[in-house]
From TrEMBL:
Pfam families: PCC. One of its GO terms (molecular function) is DNA binding. This is DNA-binding protein. Coiled coil: none annotated. PROSITE patterns: PPC. InterPro entries: PPC_dom.
Protein backbone atom coordinates (compact mmCIF):
# COMPACT_ATOMS: atom_id res chain seq x y z
CA UNK A 1 0.00 0.00 0.00
CA UNK A 2 1.24 3.49 -0.86
CA UNK A 3 -0.25 6.92 -0.19
CA UNK A 4 -0.03 10.05 -2.34
CA UNK A 5 -1.06 13.68 -2.12
CA UNK A 6 -2.05 15.13 -5.49
CA UNK A 7 -2.52 18.91 -5.49
CA UNK A 8 -4.22 20.60 -8.43
CA UNK A 9 -4.05 24.31 -9.21
CA UNK A 10 -6.49 26.99 -10.34
CA UNK A 11 -7.95 26.14 -13.74
CA UNK A 12 -7.07 22.42 -13.62
CA UNK A 13 -9.84 19.94 -14.44
CA UNK A 14 -10.25 17.36 -11.66
CA UNK A 15 -11.40 14.26 -13.59
CA UNK A 16 -8.57 14.55 -16.10
CA UNK A 17 -6.11 15.23 -13.24
CA UNK A 18 -6.93 11.99 -11.43
CA UNK A 19 -6.97 10.09 -14.75
CA UNK A 20 -3.49 11.40 -15.65
CA UNK A 21 -2.21 10.43 -12.19
CA UNK A 22 -3.64 6.90 -12.58
CA UNK A 23 -2.09 6.45 -16.03
CA UNK A 24 1.30 7.91 -15.05
CA UNK A 25 1.64 5.64 -12.01
CA UNK A 26 -0.08 2.65 -13.67
CA UNK A 27 -2.58 2.39 -10.82
CA UNK A 28 -4.59 -0.85 -10.82
CA UNK A 29 -6.50 -0.34 -7.56
CA UNK A 30 -6.86 2.75 -5.39
CA UNK A 31 -9.35 4.79 -3.43
CA UNK A 32 -9.31 8.50 -2.76
CA UNK A 33 -10.91 11.42 -1.02
CA UNK A 34 -10.54 15.06 -1.95
CA UNK A 35 -11.67 18.58 -1.19
CA UNK A 36 -11.07 22.10 -2.38
CA UNK A 37 -12.76 24.80 -4.40
CA UNK A 38 -14.42 24.88 -7.80
CA UNK A 39 -15.20 27.60 -10.31
CA UNK A 40 -17.65 25.24 -12.03
CA UNK A 41 -18.74 21.61 -11.90
CA UNK A 42 -20.83 19.10 -13.79
CA UNK A 43 -22.48 16.13 -12.07
CA UNK A 44 -24.57 13.28 -13.37
CA UNK A 45 -27.35 11.31 -11.79
CA UNK A 46 -27.62 7.89 -13.43
CA UNK A 47 -31.12 7.02 -14.64
CA UNK A 48 -31.12 3.22 -14.70
CA UNK A 49 -34.28 3.04 -16.81
CA UNK A 50 -32.90 5.32 -19.53
CA UNK A 51 -29.32 4.01 -19.06
CA UNK A 52 -27.89 7.50 -19.16
CA UNK A 53 -26.99 10.44 -16.93
CA UNK A 54 -29.27 13.33 -16.07
CA UNK A 55 -26.84 16.29 -16.04
CA UNK A 56 -26.52 19.02 -13.43
CA UNK A 57 -24.29 22.02 -14.25
CA UNK A 58 -22.98 24.26 -11.46
CA UNK A 59 -21.78 27.45 -13.13
CA UNK A 60 -20.70 29.43 -10.09
CA UNK A 61 -17.90 29.25 -7.52
CA UNK A 62 -18.48 26.54 -4.94
CA UNK A 63 -16.86 24.67 -2.07
CA UNK A 64 -16.21 20.96 -2.58
CA UNK A 65 -17.87 19.46 0.49
CA UNK A 66 -16.83 15.93 -0.29
CA UNK A 67 -15.40 13.78 -3.04
CA UNK A 68 -14.70 10.04 -3.02
CA UNK A 69 -13.70 7.61 -5.70
CA UNK A 70 -11.78 4.60 -6.83
CA UNK A 71 -9.37 3.61 -9.56
CA UNK A 72 -9.56 0.20 -11.18
CA UNK A 73 -8.77 -1.40 -14.54
CA UNK A 74 -11.12 -1.39 -17.52
CA UNK A 75 -9.93 -2.85 -20.83
CA UNK A 76 -6.38 -2.90 -19.45
CA UNK A 77 -6.26 0.82 -18.57
CA UNK A 78 -6.63 2.69 -15.31
CA UNK A 79 -10.14 4.06 -14.86
CA UNK A 80 -11.22 6.56 -12.17
CA UNK A 81 -14.80 6.68 -10.87
CA UNK A 82 -15.73 9.65 -8.69
CA UNK A 83 -18.76 10.88 -6.75
CA UNK A 84 -18.91 14.18 -4.94
CA UNK A 85 -20.79 17.24 -3.82
CA UNK A 86 -20.30 20.99 -3.85
CA UNK A 87 -22.00 23.76 -1.87
CA UNK A 88 -22.92 27.00 -3.59
CA UNK A 89 -23.04 30.40 -1.85
CA UNK A 90 -26.68 29.84 -0.80
CA UNK A 91 -25.60 26.78 1.20
CA UNK A 92 -27.30 24.30 -1.11
CA UNK A 93 -25.35 21.13 -1.93
CA UNK A 94 -25.34 19.63 -5.41
CA UNK A 95 -23.72 16.35 -6.33
CA UNK A 96 -23.64 12.94 -7.88
CA UNK A 97 -21.29 11.24 -10.31
CA UNK A 98 -18.52 13.76 -11.05
CA UNK A 99 -18.20 14.45 -14.78
CA UNK A 100 -16.16 17.66 -14.65
CA UNK A 101 -14.86 20.12 -12.08
CA UNK A 102 -12.66 23.16 -12.69
CA UNK A 103 -10.39 24.01 -9.74
CA UNK A 104 -10.34 27.44 -8.16
CA UNK A 105 -8.07 28.14 -6.27
CA UNK A 106 -6.85 24.75 -4.95
CA UNK A 107 -7.77 21.08 -4.78
CA UNK A 108 -6.22 18.23 -2.78
CA UNK A 109 -6.52 14.47 -3.45
CA UNK A 110 -5.46 11.96 -0.78
CA UNK A 111 -4.90 8.71 -2.67
CA UNK A 112 -4.21 5.22 -1.31
CA UNK A 113 -2.93 2.72 -3.89
CA UNK A 114 -3.44 -0.97 -3.16
CA UNK A 115 -1.22 -3.76 -4.59
CA UNK A 116 -3.99 -6.08 -5.86
CA UNK A 117 -5.68 -5.14 -9.14
CA UNK A 118 -9.44 -4.58 -9.37
CA UNK A 119 -11.18 -5.00 -12.73
CA UNK A 120 -14.39 -3.57 -14.11
CA UNK A 121 -16.70 -4.65 -16.91
CA UNK A 122 -19.81 -3.21 -18.49
CA UNK A 123 -23.05 -4.49 -16.99
CA UNK A 124 -25.45 -5.16 -19.87
CA UNK A 125 -28.38 -4.60 -17.50
CA UNK A 126 -27.37 -1.01 -16.69
CA UNK A 127 -24.89 -0.14 -19.46
CA UNK A 128 -22.51 0.95 -16.71
CA UNK A 129 -19.16 -0.22 -15.35
CA UNK A 130 -19.26 -2.56 -12.36
CA UNK A 131 -16.55 -4.43 -10.43
CA UNK A 132 -15.94 -7.93 -11.79
CA UNK A 133 -14.32 -10.02 -9.01
CA UNK A 134 -13.74 -12.91 -11.46
CA UNK A 135 -11.97 -10.95 -14.19
CA UNK A 136 -8.19 -11.19 -14.28
CA UNK A 137 -7.34 -9.21 -17.44
Amino acid sequence: MKSYLLVLATGDEVTSGIAEFAQQYQVKNAHYTAFGDATSAKFGWYDKDRKMFKLSDINEPSEVTGLVGDISLYNGKSFAHTHGSVATSDGICHGGHLLELIVGPTFEFYITVEPTAVYKKISPEFNALVVDPDLEK
